[in-house]
Design a protein that fits this description.
The complex is a heterodimer. By secondary structure, chain A is an all-alpha fold. Chain A is 73% helix and 0% strand. The chains are: A mainly alpha, B mainly alpha.
């Protein structure tokens, strides 16, 4: 009887449902990622990488766009230091992802942090951050959990801790990450196997841009985020020829700065309920 | 590069990538970001995603192509409309690829 009562008090989302929801959210993205993985496998072989190294890079590095750049660099005989520097710059955007997910992951055990960090790719990040933010809306929470925590009276803080222990959303992250990881390994293998049999005229590389378009549109929720996207896009175009993908990093930072700058008025007024935006901003 | 240097370079690339991804997840709470910076993090997805998309479409293969007859541009716009109306990733990819193939057949690459 006691057990039955405890069970009925369990939160509605369990680890299993979160994990499966993560896989489900990732499935459509995989449609765009799989051809990209195949192209990577084929390019790596074309660039003269041994099959074992081409396959291993997909699990050791596990970063799609970097693997493409690295394949070109290996082919041109670039020194190891250039490859390491390029790795740092091309993947610097993941530091932004890390910072943006970190507040939600604070209360996780260390082993979860180490595991999920390995799975933190563009394609796992996008559905995961959306999932965390939707959860906030449902629970009536706000963006800044850390500040909120310190402002609450002690009794309420205890309740938040209870809430954190029943928070299973990291399983969603794991589901999305594992799904992407598996497909990335398999599609790399298929690409290595098929080699140059995939004709370039099929333009299968376009699936990556399409995947990112599908991920971008839902996050364009207000004017500052649209401005962030447009300014980052324009800077990325201008800087597309810059060495070591520096254009990408610059573009991301400029976009974030533009969004934050346009958002500054709203941030100040958000504590006094919703005040209509000034006419020139609407 | 081949043999041991190749593998060592790859391990180094993996370590750097992992370190970057782990950075804030591990350090959050030990170091504090200024609140302004914390709130700016919500612009990470739109900024990074479009910084990847724009050059893929308008400077594909390194050469500028801002012509309104750029098949990737037209297919990208169609895909964005599908994403906006349906919020369906799979449909966005399928319609976008179909549009690209159709446009390439009509206009050429």
């Amino acid at each position: 009887m006691v057990r039955a009562t405890v069970k009925s008090n369990m939160p509605t989302t369990t680890a299993r449902t979160e994990f499966l929801a993560g896989i489900r959210a990732e499935l459509p993205i995989l449609l765009g990622v799989a051809p990209f993985g195949m192209i990577y496998g084929a390019l790596a072989i074309g660039a003269g990488l041994p099959r074992s190294a081409a396959q291993a890079m997909s699990s050791i590095v596990f970063a799609g766009s970097l693997q493409f750049v690295a394949t070109q660099l290996f082919a041109t005989g670039a020194p190891g230091l250039v490859l390491l520097l390029t790795t740092f710059i091309v993947n610097l955007r993941h530091m932004l992802y890390s910072a943006s997910l970190a507040p939600y992951m604070q209360k996780l055990p260390a082993r979860w942090k180490w595991l999920l960090a390995y799975l933190l790719t563009d394609e796992a990040y996008a559905p995961t951050i959306l999932h965390y933010r939707q959860g906030e809306v449902n629970h009536g929470g706000t963006e800044n959990t850390e500040i909120e925590d310190s402002l609450r009276p002690p009794r309420l803080r205890g309740e938040i801790l209870d809430d954190a222990s029943s928070d299973k959303r990291h399983w969603f992250f794991l589901g999305a990450g594992v799904a992407l990881w598996s497909i990335w390994q398999v599609s790399t293998a298929v690409g290595i196997f098929l080699g140059a049999q995939v004709p370039p005229s099929w333009a299968l590389d376009f699936t990556l841009a399409l995947t990112f378009i599908a991920l971008l549109v839902p996050v364009l929720t207000d004017r500052p985020s649209v401005a962030a996207a447009l300014s980052a896009g324009i800077i990325a175009l201008v800087g597309a020829g810059w060495p070591y993908k520096l254009g990408l990093v610059t573009a991301a930072l400029v976009g974030i700065a533009v969004g934050a700058w346009l958002d500054r008025g709203r941030l100040q007024s958000s504590e006094q309920e919703q005040i209509p935006l000034p006419a020139e901003e609407v | 590069m081949s043999g041991t240097p190749l593998w060592l370079t790859m391990l180094g690339m993996g370590a750097i990538t992992y370190g970057i991804r782990l950075s804030f997840i591990l350090l959050w709470g030990k170091i504090t970001l200024p609140p302004t910076l914390q709130r700016s993090l919500r612009f990470v997805p739109p900024a990074v995603l479009s910084a990847i998309i724009f050059p893929e479409i308008l400077r594909h293969g390194g050469a500028w192509n801002v012509s309104p007859l750029n098949p990737r541009l037209l297919a990208g716009i169609i895909a964005a409309l599908v994403a906006w109306r349906t919020r369906n990733t799979m449909l966005t990819i399928l319609v976008g690829m179909a549009a690209l193939w159709g446009l390439q057949a009509l206009i050429g690459r």
